[in-house]
Amino acid sequence: MAEAKTDNPAAKATAKRAAKGPQPSQKATKKGASPGGYYWGTGRRKSAVARVRIKPGKGKLLINKRELGDYFPREQDRKAVMAPLKTVEGEKRFDVFVNVRGGGTSGQAGAVLLGIARALKIYDENYIQALRDGGHLTRDSRMVERKKPGQRGARRKFQFSKR
Fold first, then answer.
1. pTM for the whole thing?
2. What is the pLDDT tens value at each position of the chain, 163 positions in all?
3. What distance in Å separates the CA atoms of residue 117 and residue 84, rounded to the nearest whole number?
4. In sequence order, what are the residues at sequence separation of 6 or more whose Cβ sits closer than 8 angstroms to the Cβ of residue 134?
5. Half-sphere exposure of residue 158, counting CA atoms within 13 Å on the CB side?
6. Coil, strand, or helix at residue 76?
7. Strands (DSSP E) along 20-120, which ranges?
């Protein structure tokens, strides 16, 4: 079958691209500091989302413009947030600024942990193995199970009455 000739330049460009095969996307992956010198990381846990910015500094840690101890009163939440920084021995070397929304306190602490770990990974790729070994780069995918119809909750049934 004969190939149809066309004078349309757009059709020629499309045909030329199709002949080359699939092309990698032109979107540049941004690795490195943002204009303010910050390294960004996003963490999620349950329904909480944390946006984390880190930059080399003196060890200041603010969560929603509050100190760590003020925002997370429970010791286990404070330890979880500090875990990735302790892993790379950076408690006093980075200033950390976090905005976190949604979920409860432990969900927010888990989201902040993942966000800090991802930001540290972008800051220095040599930290990846230590963070991975500590389990800080793995997103905890457990979510609340949905309520089922005809039941009181996800698993709990209504009280049975024989009569």
1. 0.78
2. 555 565 776 666 555 555 554 454 454 455 777 788 899 999 999 999 999 999 999 999 999 999 999 999 999 999 999 999 999 998 999 999 999 999 999 999 999 999 999 999 999 899 999 999 999 999 999 999 999 999 999 999 999 999 8
3. 6
4. 83, 84, 87
5. 7
6. helix
7. 39-45, 48-56, 61-63, 66-67, 94-101
